[in-house]
Amino acid sequence: MEKEMILLKKLSIGYRQKTDSRKVLKDINLSIFSGELVCLLGPNGIGKSTLLRTLSGLLPKLSGTIMINGRALEEYSEKELSKQVGVVLTDHPQLRNMRVEELVALGRAPYTNFFGGLSSEDKVFVDEAISLVGIDKLRGRMIRELSDGERQKVMIARALAQQTPVIILDEPTAFLDFPSKVEVMKLLRNLAHDMHKTILLSTHDLDLAVRLADTLLQVADSGIQKVDCQQVEKEMSLLLDI
Ligand SMILES: Nc1ncnc2c1ncn2[C@@H]1O[C@H](COP(=O)(O)OP(=O)(O)OP(=O)(O)O)[C@@H](O)[C@H]1O
């Protein structure tokens, strides 16, 4: 039986400004379960990143409820939340001067002591994450010397080393060539299915999302709706006249 990992009720998200707030999406009601690869689709500027940042605890909600693994998001301390939710955002220029192994080891930060030393258990999790993602050969390389696809895999390995039940990724396939997009999406799907993780990502790669996601969520001004993968595939074929 899969577990309800993310529950959203009457959620409004956006940006608080000095005098008022800029609402981006409102009345979001949604349940997301463990073992699921969930893809958020929608046009530029509709609010996908805003939602992912809000669920990651990086941006405060405007109103409503966010439950992560059965507990309200705001009840978690920063450290506790980083044991529940791993986040892979678009670019991290400040991480470019690290080696692959060091960056993956950053995933252990919520578990290490004040001085940040890795225990032998931490090292096992780092090794495991590196081998799961298939980047053993890149271990000693500098992040700045990697291709976009390789760097994306390293970021996923860091989130895996963090050992969280939920992983949130903002456009993990952007800027990748087609084979790398497929590889990254399949990797994420396998992680959801084999390790029972909840993987929530945004993407503009509709064709891949339709084929690989367990759940497709369409973001529109009116809110967020689950859409049927097979129905979308049929509509795509009709549009393309094939
Ligand atoms: N820091 C901010 N302050 C105020 N408004 C913002 C801020 N960041 C984004 N927005 C606005 O919020 C809305 C939603 O942006 P968001 O980045 O969530 O869209 P998105 O669906 O992720 O788009 P894309 O597909 O282009 O990445 C946009 O109108 C954007 O201009």
Automatic annotation (TrEMBL):
State one molecular function term (GO).
ATP binding
Q: How does this chain sit within the bilayer? A: Peripheral membrane protein
Q: Which Gene3D superfamilies match?
A: P-loop containing nucleotide triphosphate hydrolases
Keyword Secreted tagged:
no
Intracellular or extracellular location(s): Cell membrane
Key words, A-Z: ATP-binding, Cell membrane, Ion transport, Iron, Iron transport, Membrane, Nucleotide-binding, Transport
The protein's name is ABC transporter ATP-binding protein
